[in-house]
Amino acid sequence: MKLSFSSPPFHFLFFFCFSIVTLSSLTVNAATCHVDDEAGLLGFKSRITADPSGMLTSWKPGTDCCTWRGIRCLADNRVTSITLFGQTNKPNSFLSGPISPSLSKLQFLDGLYLQNLRNISGPFPDFLFGLPKLLFVYIENNDLSGRIPNSIGNLTRLYSFSLAGNRFSGPIPSSVSKLTELSQLKLGPNLLSGPIPYGIQQLKNLNYLTLEQNRLSGPIPDFFGSFPELRILNLSGNRFTGKIPPSISALAPKLAYLELGHNSLKGQIPDYLGNFKALDTLDLSSNEFSGVVPRTFRNLTKIFNLDLSRNYLVDPFPEMNVKGIESLDLSYNSFHLKEIPKWVTSSPIIYSLKLAKCGIKMKLEDWKPTATYFYDYIDLSENEISGSAVGLLNRTSYLVGFGASGNSLKFNLESLGIVSRLKYLDVSRNLVFGKVPKAVSGLAKLNVSHNHLCGQLPATSFPASAFQGNDCLCGSPLPPCKV
Length: 483
Ligand SMILES: *[C@@H]1O[C@H](CO)[C@@H](O)[C@H](O)[C@H]1NC(C)=O
Ligand SMILES: *[C@@H]1O[C@H](CO)[C@@H](O)[C@H](O)[C@H]1NC(C)=O
Ligand SMILES: *[C@@H]1O[C@H](CO)[C@@H](O)[C@H](O)[C@H]1NC(C)=O
Ligand SMILES: *[C@@H]1O[C@H](CO)[C@@H](O)[C@H](O)[C@H]1NC(C)=O
Ligand SMILES: *[C@@H]1O[C@H](CO)[C@@H](O)[C@H](O)[C@H]1NC(C)=O
Ligand SMILES: *[C@@H]1O[C@H](CO)[C@@H](O)[C@H](O)[C@H]1NC(C)=O
Known about the structure:
Belongs to the polygalacturonase-inhibiting protein family. This protein is mainly beta.
């Protein structure tokens, strides 16, 4: 999922609002915060064993806790939310230790956001049951473990509940059915097992249900008539079996994300999916779906991300009617597309194209995509593509990966533009000739095996298998060149 909120106006707006919030919290909360809240927060800090980036440095006894980093107060100087975020791109941006139960002293807390702190550990925080005003819980991307208690059903007021990205195991308690105010339920990735409790159908306000990357099993319950607001459904990376339940058709008006990849689902892709007017992302990859892709897919005019790879789907693939697709993966089915589809070639915004083993027979120079600027991944492996890749790679500036193994590409490797962003290059099993250029040493992964390359290899750390099966390559990791 690529979000594009990085335009300058957004930053400006964010900064502007942020300044107002900061200023108002400074002025309104001139007095010190409630003693219970201060004690609760200091109790939390005292159990933290490592805070290398100084996230809690401002949490000092005797200072107004409403001004501490991550703390928000409303009326009466009572703490209403705790928001601590680790920055995923900074290795020392984490907290270690358990979540102290002393947070139960914060009786006015309505939001607890402990996100990307990575090393916050321990069991499910039972003190949540003692917080009468709690509405939002996001304990995400930490290291909590153990079972989710049955008493979870007591948190009936909750509006959002996320334990995403921890190591919780055991079943999803059936008492989750009592959380009828929930609009967001996020429990993946974790290590949860067993079936999806049928009682989840009581959560009629759900707009966001993500249970991806767990060990959940059994059929996907046929209860989707109960979620008129559902916009995001992610069940990818579990062990679900059976067919796509027919009631999913009830989600047609609003569903934007349907992700069922990496399960063991089978049967045909249902025709009604073509009626999903708001569908942005459809991932059915790595299942056992068979038959044709429904002709109704022509009606998916707003789809941006389509991944049907690694199933048993057959021709004909429908001519799509999209204005622009961002990422497409149809690899490893039984398609014989013959050429790269026109609706792909004409997309102005595509950044990831994966059509491995799609029965494409063409000369690569004959492919003239409208826009190559945004491409970061292209995988055309295991087709019958001839000609040269030099022209295509010259037209991309942001390419990170290019895979074209198992084709009949014939070009001089020294003419290939290897931009500094390129990290993965696999042109093994083609008819590539010339020498291996020095520039490949900057790649993270390279495979040029089984071509017609010759000459001394530059110094790299790739294994011999990346170079084997060529005409006359020599030098480490292959045997030395004869002098
Ligand atoms: C993460 O937390 C565990 C348990 O609290 C601790 O043993 C480990 O050293 C911590 N890791 C880091 C990098 O602080
Ligand atoms: C959950 O609610 C039940 C019934 O109100 C109560 O008996 C029980 O103690 C509560 N459990 C927790 C952990 O708060
Ligand atoms: C769904 O889960 C997959 C991983 O299985 C993840 O890559 C994707 O970002 C998730 N999408 C949403 C909307 O949560
Ligand atoms: C697309 O939708 C229109 C109306 O919503 C319908 O008449 C048409 O049959 C659909 N096309 C396909 C191929 O399903
Ligand atoms: C590709 O770019 C390289 C370096 O900029 C240039 O030498 C070469 O002529 C270009 N090849 C084609 C086919 O555009
Ligand atoms: C390169 O590709 C060949 C043949 O496809 C394969 O046997 C070999 O393991 C690969 N080596 C690397 C380093 O990827």
